[in-house]
Design goal:
By secondary structure, the chain is mainly alpha-helical. The strands form 2 sheets. The protein has a 3-stranded parallel sheet with strand order 1-2-3. It has a two-stranded parallel sheet with strand order 4-5. Strand 1, helix 1 and strand 2 form a beta-alpha-beta unit. Helix 4 crosses helix 7, helix 9 runs antiparallel to helix 12 and helix 10 packs across helix 11. The protein binds adenosine-5'-tetraphosphate. The site of adenosine-5'-tetraphosphate has 19 residues, from helix 1.
Length: 342
């Protein structure tokens, strides 16, 4: 059986670890909506089990999970079209992750740059879960037999590991059971950078709030952060080559292009020669016009948390109709004795 013989199915997730930002929106959420609109079966997940690989305050985790769900819906995901779930409500994710802990090799995991970045100098004190994070991610994807995974650039290495795990499982058991999923890393904003430092990824955990545009920021805050974004003294170039060695300029142009559904070349054809003093207000106006409706809708949805909880419960029920048979079959392939009807 080849990859192409699996029915196309999309899976992706975001951690409910607070501070949902423009990078998550352009690199992930906005592209989830594109997939949903292509009428491919799609599952989008609040990966709370991933979030707890580092400390999460229980009250904040609950709020961030609901807020993330509100962000999914406000960005355009329709819970009738896509399956929206909270990872911990679908137990097959964690169960298959254990299987994959036994398939993945220590050497593979030790190469993961995200673990090295997040564990920092004190790796001995990092949680075992943080180390095993990519095996859980492989389980998230493969428990749906997902074939396509839209993610930002930073997840490329984890996706390669998912492919290695699927291939090794199939090889070890002599069966083409798991698809080898394709990472889908596309568009102008696969890696949105910090507004304060063009060499650092825009990130939830950056201590500087000015480094990112949060999906909960109001219009004034968005405009102010863009006004204060770090730039250089040169005018904007007319061609992409001219962005070489200018990370902050490249970042702002990428953001503009992704938000306006344009290519970088198209944007530069319009704004080449302008100073940042002229370009930043254009970017601020565009960002406010695109982000404010999302912010407003998120706030409205957060006033109906019982509705959010119902959407997640319903999503989990639909998800389990896919995941339970896939886990059962996995166990069967591996030789586990199944329960009998009594
Ligand atoms: N800066 C970014 N540009 C483009 N895409 C991004 N993503 C994250 N940051 C950027 C994409 O968003 C999805 C969900 O990310 P996540 O929340 O699961 O994990 P993360 O990468 O850990 O998010 P952060 O903001 O970077 O958190 P911290 O600060 O904890 O490290 C993924 O598809 C990711 O590629």
């Amino acid at each position: 059986m080849s990859e192409t013989s699996f029915t196309p199915r999309v899976f992706s997730g975001i951690q409910p670890s607070g501070n949902l930002h423009l990078g998550n929106y352009l690199g992930a959420l906005k592209r989830f909506v594109d997939w949903q609109d292509r009428d491919v079966e799609s599952i989008f997940c609040m990966v709370d089990l991933h979030a707890i690989t580092v400390w999460q305050d229980p009250v904040d985790l609950k709020k961030s999970t609901r807020e993330l769900c509100a962000g999914f819906i406000a960005s355009g995901l329709d819970p009738e079209k896509s399956i929206l779930i909270n990872q911990s409500q679908v137990p097959e994710h964690a169960q298959l992750a254990w299987v994959f802990n036994c398939i993945a090799r220590m050497g593979w995991m030790q190469r993961m740059t995200q673990f090295k970045d997040k564990a920092g100098k004190n790796a001995q004190n990092a949680s075992l879960g943080l180390f095993a994070y990519p095996a859980l991610m492989a389980a998230d994807i493969l428990t749906y037999h997902a074939t396509h995974v839209p993610v930002g650039e930073d997840q490329k290495q984890h996706l390669e590991l998912t492919r290695d795990i699927a291939t090794k499982f199939n090889h070890d058991y002599g069966i083409d059971f798991f698809p080898v999923p394709e990472p889908v890393i596309e568009g102008a904003a696969t890696r949105v950078m910090s507004l304060r430092d063009g060499s650092k990824k825009m990130s939830k955990s950056d201590p500087s709030d000015a480094s990112r545009i949060n999906l909960t920021d109001d219009a004034d805050t968005i405009a102010k952060k863009i006004r204060k974004a770090k730039t250089d003294p040169e005018a904007l170039p007319s061609e992409a080559d001219g962005l070489e060695g200018r990370p902050e300029a490249r970042n702002l142009i990428n953001i503009y292009a992704a938000m306006n559904n344009q290519s970088v070349d198209e944007v530069l054809a319009d704004v080449g020669g302008k100073q940042f003093s002229e370009f930043k207000p254009m970017l601020a106006e565009l960002a406010v016009s695109k982000m404010s409706p999302i912010t407003t809708e998120m706030a409205r949805l957060m006033e109906h948390q019982d509705e959010i909880d119902k959407i997640l419960s319903r999503g989990s029920e639909r998800a389990r109709a896919i995941t339970a048979p896939i886990l059962r079959k996995t166990y069967e392939i591996m030789g586990m004795v199944p329960p009998i009807e009594m």
